Amino acid sequence: xxxxxxxxxxxxxxxxxxxxxxxxxxxxxxxxxxxxxxxxxxxxxxxxxxxxxxxxxxxxxxxxxxxxxxxxxxxxxxxxxxxxxxxxxxxxxxxxxxxxxxxxxxxxxxxxxxxxxxxxxxxxxxxxxxxxxxxxxxxxxxxxxxxxxxxxxxxxxxxxxxxxxxxxxxxxxxxxxxxxxxxxxxxxxxxxxxxxxxxxxxxxxxxxxx
Length: 210
Fold this sequence. Notes:
Blueprint: H1 2-16, H2 23-60, E1 67-71, H3 80-89, H4 91-97, E2 108-113, E3 116-117, H5 124-146, E4 151-155, H6 163-171, E5 178-182, E6 200-203, E7 206-209
Parallel strand pairs: 4-5
Antiparallel strand pairs: 1-2, 2-3, 6-7
């Protein structure tokens, strides 16, 4: 990623200044770094779906699994030479726009449900649920990879779920090192307390124990 961004920054600088002399060199460098990045993203998202998809189905109660589809800018390009050809075909467009118009910096993601783009048909609540499950899945995913427990920060998230999904959400939280919840005044937080839970009140920027 760092190498790709470095080359991209230089290539964009050359384009903005109308210079073409070294573009061939930068095209090959960008293609080399970008191809590795694209391959890594494809593998990682496929691996992440093994955690995210079944987790979302359990919490949401959906009949089928929702999964993340990776949409690379260099779709169907599997070699450095193919990507260089793609970059060369876009040079005129790049000079008009003043920037590199194709590459991993323009990759996309789609939430696929029953072969449909779920983001276009989902309710606001369902989209919010996706964002919450993504965070939980991310915590589980990194815990599995690093063997370290996460520190979780849950800022008013329970308010946005109905009671059934709220309990499901809490049920599937990963093992954590520490967890922080925030609640608005008057909310019923006692049902989430444990024996070692510390409850703090924030007023005028100061903390006090409840």
